[in-house]
UniProtKB/TrEMBL annotation:
<dbReference type="InterPro" id="IPR043166">
    <property type="entry name" value="LarA-like_C"/>
</dbReference>
<dbReference type="InterPro" id="IPR048068">
    <property type="entry name" value="LarA-like"/>
</dbReference>
<dbReference type="InterPro" id="IPR018657">
    <property type="entry name" value="LarA-like_N"/>
</dbReference>
<protein>
    <submittedName>
        <fullName>Transcriptional regulator</fullName>
    </submittedName>
</protein>
<dbReference type="Pfam" id="PF09861">
    <property type="entry name" value="Lar_N"/>
</dbReference>
<dbReference type="GO" id="GO:0050043">
    <property type="term" value="F:lactate racemase activity"/>
</dbReference>
<dbReference type="InterPro" id="IPR047926">
    <property type="entry name" value="Ni_dep_LarA"/>
</dbReference>
<feature type="domain" description="LarA-like N-terminal">
    <location>
        <begin position="8"/>
        <end position="207"/>
    </location>
</feature>
């Protein structure tokens, strides 16, 4: 047997596994140069765009879109580089506002300023969250070819200089995060977000997940293409996309035009984080990635979507996700609909919003057994359709595994996409 550390919250849980257990992890490479050098290249020698400082000259104010606290993007390091260039170009700090582009997620907290801005910028630049619920804070800029009315934040629209930032990794229905997602859903009105996200479900001839909206898929993905079309109505003047390793170091950074810089980062993610599996495993130990990726249930379960097919039908995933902030009641209510016909009727009628999450969980539960180690209550885990277990109970099950079993362990997930041959 050997000991492995499974990321859990801000710490880890030690498990004993058979010696032959395979360990799989995402991009763990160290940056080939310093983060400052990577960012200098991205901001001063960008792709399909003038340098950021050149774009900022003559502008009176700027907004910078960043991700919320449930994602690590490197914003605490790259924002100071961006702000310095804006100030040198003539935009005073008091006219620079950083907006957490949270979409419909209520994740903004003022106490996260140091975490997201970095200590140097706290109190020097504006810091606020996007409000998707107030119609008068948005303006309609057009309608996409798929019928999405695009309502964007006036704070974003009224800025002289608009900068979008984000981390690129796999996303369970948009294909990849980053890029255009800073605009839609980032600073969009809730009605716009819901219309876009509804494309994750096909309604005819039956309600089912749209196979074109999947992790790692951009071309032909209607959600991605709708997001991109929406962002092009009033595109960011500059976009910065980062790729991080398991230690949250920035290993790659691409600045410039929205789509060009995003696609460059996508190619790096595909190179390091897509895992090819020759044959499915009997069982897997899966970490949601520790904090902040397991801060709540809706973030944590995303880890299952790109990985569950690496386990054979009827196999077992031991899933570690702390979830100190709980799980949304709407998701629990959706997953409690055990009758597949009734679930689809509720999604089709609009009485169950964001039904794609329920459909994903239904598909995962049909495929394999999920044993969850978490701070959620046993009753809550049962409502998800999973089995609750304490770490010691998992240790007991692992000790009974035979060396003949095929197996896999992910010590620190981050974000992986498994592809079976």
């Amino acid at each position: 047997m050997k000991t492995v550390a499974i990321a859990y919250g801000s710490g880890s849980i030690a498990l004993e596994v058979p010696e032959a257990t395979e360990s799989i992890a995402p991009n763990s490479q160290a940056p080939c140069v310093s983060e400052d050098e990577l960012l200098e290249e991205a901001l001063d020698r960008p792709l399909a765009s003038p340098p950021l400082q050149e774009l900022a000259r003559g502008k009176r104010n700027a907004v910078i879109l960043i991700a919320c606290r449930t994602r690590r993007t490197g914003s605490d390091r790259y924002l100071k580089q961006i702000v310095r260039r804006l100030v040198e170009a003539g935009i005073p700090e008091e006219r620079i506002t950083v907006i957490t582009a949270t979409g419909t997620h209520d994740n903004f907290r003022e106490q996260d300023a140091e975490l997201l801005l970095g200590r140097e910028l706290v109190g020097r630049v504006g810091f606020e969250g996007h409000d998707c619920d107030t119609p008068e804070k948005h303006a309609c800029v057009g309608t996409t070819s798929r019928g999405t009315e695009v309502w964007l934040s006036k704070r974003y629209l009224d800025a002289d200089l608009r900068i979008a930032t984000g981390r690129v990794t796999y996303h369970y229905f948009a294909g990849f995060s980053g890029g255009r997602k800073a605009v839609l859903p980032g600073v969009s009105r809730k009605t716009t977000v819901r219309r876009n996200h509804s494309m994750a479900v096909l309604y005819h001839p039956e309600v089912r997940l749209n196979p074109a909206t999947a992790p790692g898929v951009l071309d032909g993905n209607p959600i991605h293409e709708d997001m991109l079309e929406a962002a092009r109505f009033v595109p960011p003047d500059f976009s910065l996309n980062t790729v991080l390793n398991t230690s949250h170091q920035i290993t790659h950074a691409f600045g410039g035009e929205l789509e060009t810089s995003h696609r460059a980062a996508v190619r790096i993610v595909e190179q390091f984080d897509r895992v090819h599996v020759e044959s499915p495993y009997d069982w897997m130990i899966l970490s949601a990635g520790g904090a902040p990726y397991d801060v709540n249930g809706i973030q944590a379960i995303k880890a299952l979507i790109g990985t569950y097919q690496a386990v054979r039908p009827g196999g077992t995933i031991f899933f570690f996700a702390e979830c100190p902030e709980g799980i949304p009641e709407w998701l629990l209510q959706a997953t409690e609909v055990q009758d597949p016909r009734l679930l689809r009727e509720r999604i089709a009628s609009g009485t169950l919003i964001l039904g794609h999450n329920a459909l994903w969980l239904e598909q995962i539960r049909r495929h394999c057994r999920i044993v969850m180690v978490t701070e959620l209550s046993p009753a809550t885990v049962e409502r998800l359709g999973f089995q609750y277990a304490k770490a010691d109970e998992v240790r007991g099950q692992l000790s009974r595994l035979t060396v003949e079993s095929t197996h896999g362990v992910i010590a620190h997930l981050g974000n992986l996409l498994f592809a079976t041959s």
